[in-house]
Amino acid sequence: MPLVIITGYPCSGKTYRARQLLDFFNDKISGAQQQQQQQSADANHNNTTTKDAARIARLRLHHISDRTLGLRPDVYRDARPEKDARAAEFSAVERALGKDDIVVADGLNYIKGFRYQLYCAAKAVATPSCVIHVGTPIPRCRDINTRLLLAESSASDVTHTTNSGGGYPEDVFENLIYRYEEPNGMNRWDKPLFTVVWDDATPPLDDIWEALVGSSRTVKPNQATVLKPAAPSNHLYDLDLATQEVLARILAYQGDHPGEGGGEVRVDGVSAVIELPTAPLSVPLLQRLRRQFINLNRQHVPPQREGVNKERFVEYLNDSFDA
What we know:
By secondary structure, the chain is an alpha/beta fold. It has helices spanning about 15-40, 45-55, 80-95, 110-125, 140-155, 160-165, 170-180, 205-215, 235-255, 285-295, 310-320, and strands at about 5-10, 60-65, 100-105, 130-135, 195, 265, 275. A hairpin with an 8-residue loop joins strand 6 (about 265) and strand 7 (about 275). Helix 5 (about 140-155) packs across helix 6 and helix 9 crosses helix 11. The longest helix has 27 residues, at about 15-40. The two termini are about 45 Å apart. Residues about 155-165 have low confidence and may be disordered.
């Protein structure tokens, strides 16, 4: 289920917006659960509505932030601990993503390359994602960070500091502000993009819900993000036998029709016929085409049914002869 990527300047109110989202999502899930219970007792309910309610009622919420991961603000001072912090967040998001899970990634997420990495992780499991940009002015973020640092140094405000997560050291804060890469709605990994201005009462909750959960659009993973099934141990052996049988039929036909060009060759178990070119085919040419086909399909495992390798080799030969 969906991934929500929250991004913004440090101390811009990202966690506050994340909690608003989580409360809204939780209300939606609770409402669907109640609706499902009511419809289970009603014999005349709408099946489509029941399916939607059941789908929403199964959803689980996951909130992943620096605080939940136990990361301190000063990890962003040096490159090595910052890289480890991003790896920790990415691993947590990747573990939580699933068919019945909504994941709210409430971190800095200030590097566009890291947002792209999160986008690919969501696409790999065929689930939608969105980016929420918390648009708080830099002076206000700086003021909030200063107040958090003062509260952190005051023993009387320890409880308040613990709940808020504390402020960033001044040098770290200024460095993060300088390095922040604002999301761009033109980039596919930043779409759909929802910008929440700092004085907005709430994010566009209904629009976010519709884009992630209510939308009927399907997400197709890229080939690069799909794990290819391991080839069976006899896959290459089957390819070798199938291609040899097809070549044997071609050579046998040419032997029965010496000096002739063209013609159609049928192979047992294959509905398509091999349409030979006007010029006779030499053995080296056929062997070269056979090697090319095997190399192209060495890692590609077709559906396991009888004769599928012969069918695909016949198609490959016909395409090669027409080229």
